[in-house]
Each structure stands twice: as structure tokens, then as C-alpha cells.
């Protein structure tokens, strides 16, 4: 056998050993993988139970003097730094007649239980990644758990660890239900979801094509593609709609093939609701955010030096003449001290302007 042929033969025989050793010879890089197959079995089971349960009708028909509740949903991958402020917010209803709390915490982040009203309110959670379908899944888990937990949950408000309240709980409750704490006898069709729905934002078409040309078709034509804040307040009917959906989810859970993030959590919810039930959506969010000086997709981060009574009043204001912002983001954890210092005298002392708008009709 000639030397060149011998060398080739030896190299051929060594290939299996190279494959076996390659994991040790080459550095390993881990990337988050988002499958395009059906949802995980446990999620699918949870969603099915949340949308098929008949407990709501039975419960409401056999009880009296029941008031609808707000489900406060916290989606976080770090400690709830503003838990003391939220604790003060919730303390006006010590018996929890008006609200429930649910927390989805990234299990790899070791988020601490803040105690108080937050104690024991963590739901089974999974790893989340920024600008990925995992944020949609986490939100759907929160909605599903809240739907199953209490049939009196009629509004579902989503927050991050960087969100703060701008009014008292009683003001927020009255603002949403517009019934001055009357019994739960009014028609649920009166309620509308507060979710931002925009159709003319820059880079919208680029995000639509992020998964590939025509990939979103036929379920999501471009003229139906929307964008909006991921922090919304949904009615119970819309919460069920989101948890029940599989048709649009199959498209939005596909990964981006471009180098630019496609932020699926900012598109899935407004697109779905604008396609299915636009008339029962206000088109705007109740959570104020400042995009001035934003970087890498992050909004302005408020620092302690910026926190003041004037800032709270400014954040409450809205371009919509008959609406207010009830919450705001994005605040650094260090803002807790100045916020707590003015909580009673400013944040939870509802303004006369707010009280006036509270009693105006939609």
C-alpha cells in the first residue's frame, strides 16, 4: 500500500474516535432552544383545565354579595425589590376581598419570597429569556393559574419587578370596575381590556419578517400584525382567549432567524386580541413607560434622584383625555426608599383630577 493511501486509510479509521472526543476538544456553547412543536404537556394540561373548567358559573350562582377581584400577575427573574411598596398598596384590603397575587419567577434566579401578601403566591414556573416566546408562555401560565384559582378574578394585570403603583388599591379597583364596589351582578360585557395595540410603529415590517418570509401566513397576514406593551390588564374573557389559543401561538413561538430580536411578547397579545375582539380592547395600556433615551430595547430606568411628587403626577397623566396611568415602570431597586417616603402623602393620596376622571364614562 502506497504511503498516501496508507495515510488516508488511517485517517478514515480515526474518524469515529474524533467524533467521540470532539466534545472534549471543542468548547461547548449553550443556546436557548425554542421548539416549534406543540406546547409542553404540563402547560397544555394547565391551559386546558383553565379554559374548560365550569367552576365559575357554579360558584357565582351559589354565592351572594361577591365582588369581582383583580388578579395581580408578577413576571420576574429577580427579587421583587418593590414588594414593600406593593405591600402598602395592598394593605388597604387586609382580607383580600378585592385582589389575588400570582408570581412567575425564573427558577434559575433564586427569587426570594418577599413575605407578607406575597408569601406562598409563587406558581410553578420555567426558565425565561428576554425577547423570546418563553415570556409569552410564562404570561399564559400566570393567566391560567389565576383563572383556575378564583372564579371571582375578573381583571388580570401583568407587571414586572420594575413596576410600581401610582394610586391606591381602592382607586385602581374603582377605576377598573366603575361600580363603586357594588355587588357582582353587572354584565361582564361592560368590561374592556387595557392593552396597547399599535399598527404603525417603525420596524414593524422587519419584525414581521424576522422568522422568515411568509412564515406567519396564513394565520397572521401583515395587515393584522400589531405591537404593544407586554404589560396589560385583561378581562377574564380575554384571559381565557389567550390561554385557549393555539393557532397564533404556533407562529409566534417560532424563533427569529435574523440577528435582530423580534420581541414576540410585544406582538403576540395585541395581535391576537385585535384580530379576535378589537371592540372590547381600549388600545392602550395602564402602565406608563418612558422611551426617551432608551437603549438596546430597554426603556428609561428611573433613579432615586428622579423620584419626586412631580414625577408621580407626570406619570399619572395620559394623552387620552379620559384615562389615567395607574402604574409605571421602569424603576431601579434603589428607588424604593424615596418612593416609600412619599407613599402615603403622594402615591396613595388620590388626586382630585383622578377622582374626576374616575367618574367619567368610557
TrEMBL record:
It is a single-pass type II membrane protein. Keywords: Glycoprotein, Glycosyltransferase, Membrane, Signal, Transferase. The keyword Membrane applies. GO terms for cellular component: membrane. Residues 1-20 form the signal peptide. It is found in: Membrane. It comes from the Eukaryota. Transmembrane segments: none annotated. GO terms for molecular function: glycosyltransferase activity. This is Uncharacterized protein. It comes from Lupinus angustifolius (Narrow-leaved blue lupine). The lineage of its organism: Eukaryota, Viridiplantae, Streptophyta, Embryophyta, Tracheophyta.
